[in-house]
Amino acid sequence: MALLTIALLAVREAARRRLLTAAAALTIVLVGLTGWSVSRLVSLHDAWKSPSTVALHASIFVILLAWGFSMVLAVGAAFLAAPAIASEVETGLILAVLPRPIRRSDFVLGKWLGLALLLGAYIALTAALEFATIKAVTGYLPPHPIAAALYLMGEAFVLMTLALFASTRVASMTGGIIAIALFGVAWIAGMVQTIAIAFNNQSIETATAAVGLLLPTDAFWRGAVFSLEPSAVVATANAAGRSAADNTPFGISAPPSTALLLWSFGWTAVVLSAAVLTFNHRDL
After folding, report:
1. Closest by alpha carbon to 190, among 28, 108, 74, 277?
2. What sign has the CA pseudo-torsion 168, 171, 175, 181?
3. pLDDT computed for residue 21 by the predictor
4. What whole-number distance in Å separates Cα of residue 95 and Cα of residue 93?
5. Per-residue model confidence (pLDDT) at position 183
6. Whole-angstrom Cα distance, residue 228 to residue 60?
7. What is the rounded (10 degree) CA torsion for 28, 33, 34, 40?
8. Pair 196, 190: CB distance under 8 Å
9. What is the pLDDT of residue 244?
10. In angstroms, rounded to a whole number, what is the distance separating the alpha carbons of residues 216 and 158?
11. What is the pTM for the complete model shown?
């Protein structure tokens, strides 16, 4: 019960700080820009008289849009979770909460649950509006839009969990910077891995894969890209071979393996448990 109360308070705190209002306004602007952009594809369709061409361009646009959205989610998740605990410790508010019959573990898990609900709802709503807009204007819809949204949620949850763990030990700004920096390292490692695959460099591929295991955000991004790619593009890439299919971060020949997804879920659980353990032993 205390866990759910803390989660609800986290949501209310976001509303009090007008975070929800700002997110809604930015979403409206983003959807409006998306509608205008894809309407230009429709005008090109009228000029080319080629539905397949506009569908191809629409699929590329959707993947690029998802890439930009994933960057926004990464920054948002990091700086949403980084002050979740650290700010209350810094201001002393935590001392008014924990003396009550609330376990520290419930406090940390409640914060995580509240932030996860906020991020999950935002991603689901924004993705639904974006896909609906693109479908209404161009008639194109990615093959697996729900799976793509879930992969983006997974990426955001991984980074949010990392930032929340940092929030139990370091200051808010420091935790946010650490999370974003590590996300950047993981993203660059994913880029380097695609180059290593293209040139068949096994040692670099292994090293970058290890980085991907230490922070598995890139796995979820690749899953999102695969879910957004038209089946014809995937089939063509697979026919060309693995190096051709996986030589860009925007062209993926296969979704993340079940083992990699299980690793990512386990990673999240372990880091969240570490956050609870660390906060339990912290002097306030």
Report:
1. 74
2. negative
3. 85
4. 5
5. 95
6. 9
7. 150
8. no
9. 46
10. 7
11. 0.89
Mean pLDDT, the chain cut into blocks of 10 residues (284 residues total): 83 81 87 86 63 73 90 91 86 70 86 94 94 88 93 96 94 91 92 83 89 93 89 59 52 82 96 94 72
Helices 19-48, 104-138: crossing angle, 10 deg rounding: 30
Phi, psi of 241 (to 5 degrees): 110, 165
Residue length, the chain? 284
The answer to whether 224 and 252 are in contact (CB under 8 A) is: no
Rounded to an integer, what distance in angstroms lies between the CA atom of residue 268 and that of residue 164? Answer: 11
- Give the Cα-Cα-Cα angle 85, 90, 94 (nearest 5 degrees): 55
The pLDDT of residue 180:
94
pLDDT at residue number 193:
86
Six-digit token pair at 39? 């309407």
State the pLDDT at residue 260.
93
Listed in sequence order, the residues at least 6 apart from 149 whose beta carbon sits closer than 8 Å to its beta carbon are 123, 124, 127, 128
Could you identify the residue written with the tokens 């629409």?
A: 58
Given phi > 0 = left and psi -120 to 50 = alpha, else beta, which region is 192? alpha
Provide the residue type at 88 as one letter: E
Angle subtended at Cα 254 by Cα 251 and Cα 259, rounded to the nearest 5 degrees: 130
Query: Which amino acid belongs to residue 121?
Result: A
pLDDT (0 to 100) of residue 269:
97
Gyration radius of the chain over CA positions: 21
Element (H, E) at 191: helix 172-198
Q: Is 201 left (phi over 0), alpha (psi -120 to 50) or beta?
A: beta
- Burial category of 281 from C-beta neighbours within 10 Å (exposed 0-12, middle 13-18, buried 19 and up): exposed
For residue 33, the 8-state DSSP code is H
SS3 content of the chain, % helix, strand, coil (to 5): 85, 0, 15
Return the pLDDT at 137.
85
Distance (Å, whole) CA 163 – CA 83: 9
